[in-house]
Design goal:
Number of domains of chain A: 1
CATH architecture of chain A: 5-stranded Propeller
CATH architecture of the largest domain in chain B: 3-Layer(aba) Sandwich
Shape of chain A: globular
Strand order of the largest sheet of chain A: 2-1-15
CATH topology of chain A: L-arginine/glycine Amidinotransferase, Chain A
Largest sheet of chain B: 8 strands, parallel
Strand order of the largest sheet of chain B: 12-21-20-19-13-14-17-18
Helix content of chain A: 10-25%
Distance between the termini of chain B: 53 Å
CATH topology of the largest domain in chain B: Rossmann fold
Radius of gyration of chain B: 27 Å
CATH superfamily of chain A: L-arginine/glycine Amidinotransferase, Chain A
Helix content of chain B: 25-40%
Radius of gyration of chain A: 17 Å
Number of strands of chain A: 15
Largest interface: A-B, 22 and 15 residues
Structural class of chain A: alpha/beta
Strand content of chain A: 15-25%
Order of helices and strands of chain A: EHEEEHHEEEHEEEHEHEEHEHE
Number of strands of chain B: 21
Structural class of chain B: alpha/beta
Distance between the termini of chain A: 19 Å
Shape of chain B: elongated
Oligomer: heterodimer
Number of helices of chain A: 8
CATH class of chain A: Alpha Beta
CATH superfamily of the largest domain in chain B: putative lor/sdh protein like domains
């Protein structure tokens, strides 16, 4: 069965995008992103999403907020509820105001976490809808989000949040380590999650495909699943074969310019159609 | 046994946070007891636990607090340090907290603040810059306070609560010094050890300072020229010594004797009338007014003190009751000498204690535990003494200081030599 979410996404055009500061191991101010190439890659991602059957909404770019393009970090969506991020780094904290404005203007009710707790939205929190049981949120913590955010998140959304500790700074968000494919399967970066976290995931996900370090570093877990299509920033051969054997079509949508800022396809999209109470309620 | 209680709330069972927390406790060598446990009925309900963690070592507990905090387990009953005001200059409150030379943090208004520079056997003063009393929202400063510096109205930490001390990083040092597992030994290959000292000196510069603490034996054994060259070549950046060291250094360079004994002679080396040589030298320097002025006037043209003046490196000469003269640069008020030394020690990364007992112990009392300290003496008891007074970081090298200084210099002169690990018997270059 296909994912019950991932048909409607929020994107932000890369008008203001650039590598202007360094807040993760991928960012180097001297390695600038080529704006023309970034635009081409963004347009390609848009058309790949549409071709797979998704619809797109847009957030307005804002000067001085180059990472606003990474809409996955804006917060999380649950039905009509929007829980905005509390960015860890001051460089990104200005994004919250824009995200909240957008959500309110688009009919979402905004529930905020305690501002002293770090939380980076869908970058660190992904839903999983296991076959025949209640949906859960899988929450990554350590580099960008605090584990204590998970308890409030569970209170606000009404679903359990399973905490997994991230261990590899290069894979600083959960969405670089974990990609739900459907109700049974997920890609999981073994090197980026500690042994307790891997156990937690395998207690929820029936079929875990463990990515090797090189595969994970290609950002292949930072992919967007739209129905029976998976849009990937890169597709290592072993991973591609597995995905195809599950009946999904692989579309590679290069985002090299955005990877210079530490983001892939998933980071550039926020799924707006996640409803954690849509299956069991 | 010291213990701390932590609270853990959330989906800690399904997320395996509880087993992870307990594993961390056990791995740190601490013990735990779950004192309260409330398991959520459904998988949405949070669970709530109280865990009492105990360990003999408060450093382990402090480290665990950080580790467990990252897993969402918060210490309960965390208390601010108790502060009491000094009511009389130079007198601390009765229950003042007495410091160690280990990294220390003090909890003030809910925040752990690091002690600026840990010094043993002091009190801890908390100040709130820019304000008169204990204000809301000020940025407190925490520093070691020697007893004599306490001033009426100062806020001083009393009791043990709200103070935590980090365990020294044993592992880091043991990896570099595995070959010298005991603190002092006369049965270790000197050349190998000295090559590692050279490596440390090299690593410490230029960000940190290398301090030499010298006893008069440095001059008597003929090591003076080597120490002078260490300064000239920029390897030593501060000097602590006494009246005797400076006097004999100048005597040897001006008159060629040390305590009246010729340093260049080959046979009967006692010089006629030499017993008063050092007094005459002191007298001349006193006439000039200071060592620096005697250097300027051309009276002192070489030696350790000469190089200090030439290179502009700070030196502190601490006096004692048996001093002759003394030299005009000597601090005759020992408390003032201590304070002058305190000005310099925070920048010191490596300390070389060369054939000095009293000044070495005085310096050891002021150094933070993370300062690499090498105590070179022909007498093993000196090294033991230093360690017994709390400078546990000191590594002893039992050898003649003249041989040591010559060997150290040769390693520093030739970088290729100190980066390899020589195993051959050290070659004495004469002393």
């Amino acid at each position: 069965m296909q994912l019950p979410w991932g048909r409607h996404f929020l994107l932000c055009r890369p008008e203001q995008f650039g590598v202007l500061y360094e807040i993760n191991p991928w960012m180097h101010k001297e390695v600038t992103a080529d704006p023309d190439v970034a635009w081409d890659q963004f347009h390609l991602l848009e058309s790949n999403l549409k071709a797979a059957g998704a619809t797109i909404a847009y957030q307005e770019p804002a000067a001085g907020l180059p990472d606003l393009v990474f809409t996955a970090n804006a917060g999380i969506i649950n039905g009509s509820q929007f829980i905005p991020s509390n960015f860890k780094h001051p460089e990104r904290q200005g994004e919250k105001e824009k995200d909240v404005l957008w959500a309110k203007a688009n009919g979402f009710s905004v529930d905020e976490l305690d501002p002293s707790v770090n939380f980076e939205g869908a970058g660190d929190t992904l839903p999983f809808f296991p076959e025949g049981s209640q949906p859960v949120l899988i929450g990554g913590y350590r580099f960008r989000s605090d584990v204590v955010s998970h308890r409030s998140l569970s209170d606000l959304t009404g679903v359990p949040v399973k905490s997994v500790e991230l261990t590899d700074e290069r894979l600083y968000h959960l969405d670089l380590n974990f990609c739900p494919i459907d109700e049974k399967r997920a890609l999981v970066a073994e090197c980026g999650i500690d042994r307790y976290g891997l156990k937690v995931i395998s207690s929820i996900v029936e079929e875990v495909f463990l990515l090797e370090e090189e595969e994970a570093i290609s950002f292949c877990a930072n992919s967007v699943v739209v129905g029976e299509t998976i849009i990937m920033p890169a597709c290592p051969p072993r991973v591609g074969r597995a995905i195809e054997s599950w009946g999904l079509a692989v579309v590679v949508s290069p985002v090299s310019e955005f990877q210079k800022a530490g983001g892939g396809c998933r980071c550039l999209t926020l799924a707006l159609d996640v409803d954690l109470h849509s299956v069991v309620s | 046994m010291p213990s701390e209680t932590f609270e853990l709330v959330g989906h800690v069972i399904d997320s395996l946070t509880l087993p992870k927390v307990l594993d961390l406790v056990v791995a740190a060598g601490a013990d735990y007891k779950i004192t309260e446990m409330e398991i959520g009925r459904t998988n949405v309900d949070p669970s709530k636990l109280k865990i009492e963690v105990s360990s003999d070592d408060i450093g382990t507990l402090a480290n665990l607090c950080d580790l467990l905090h990252a897993q969402g387990a918060n210490r309960i009953g965390d208390q601010d340090a108790l502060l009491e005001q000094v009511v009389s200059d130079g007198v601390l409150p009765r229950a003042f907290y007495s410091t160690t030379n280990l990294e220390t943090e003090v909890r003030v208004m809910g925040t752990w603040v690091r002690l600026k520079y840990p010094e043993m056997d002091c009190a801890i003063r908390v100040t709130f810059p820019g304000t008169g009393g204990i204000p809301e929202g000020a940025d407190p400063k925490v520093e070691a306070l020697p007893m004599h510096k306490a001033r009426t109205g100062d806020w001083v930490v009393t009791g043990d609560s709200g103070v935590r001390v980090a365990t020294p990083e044993r592992d880091r040092r043991s990896s570099a010094f595995e070959f010298m597992a005991s603190d002092a030994s006369s049965e270790k290959p000197k050349s190998l050890i000295i090559s590692r000292v050279a490596q440390r000196v090299r690593e410490a510069t230029p960000e940190g300072k290398v301090l030499a603490v010298c006893g008069p034996a440095v001059i008597h054994t003929g090591a003076g020229p080597y120490v002078a060259k260490l300064i000239r070549d920029g390897w030593v950046h501060a000097l602590f010594a006494g009246n005797g060291f400076a006097t004999h250094d100048i005597e040897s360079n001006v008159l060629g004797t040390s305590l009246g004994v010729s340093l260049s002679g080959t046979e009967d080396s006692a010089v006629l009338g030499g017993h008063s040589n050092h007094l005459r030298v002191i007298n001349v320097i006193r006439r000039h007014g200071s060592i620096a002025r005697a250097v300027e006037a051309g009276y002192v043209r070489s030696g350790v003190m000469f190089e200090c003046v030439q290179a502009g490196i700070p030196f502190v000469l601490g006096g004692s009751v048996r001093d002759d003269g003394p030299l005009p640069d000597v601090y005759t008020d020992t408390v003032k000498a201590q304070d002058a030394m305190r000005e310099i020690v925070p920048e010191v990364k490596v300390a070389l204690m060369l054939a000095s007992t009293l000044h070495a112990i005085a310096t050891g009392n002021m150094l933070a535990a993370n300062v690499e300290t090498f105590c070179v003496d022909i007498n093993q008891a000196v090294v033991t003494k230093l360690a017994d007074r709390g400078s546990h970081q000191a590594l002893g090298i039992v050898t003649d200081v003249g041989l040591f200084a010559a060997e150290l210099l040769s390693f520093l002169d030739d970088p290729a030599k100190s980066s390899t690990s020589p195993t051959s018997t050290p070659v004495a270059k004469g002393a």
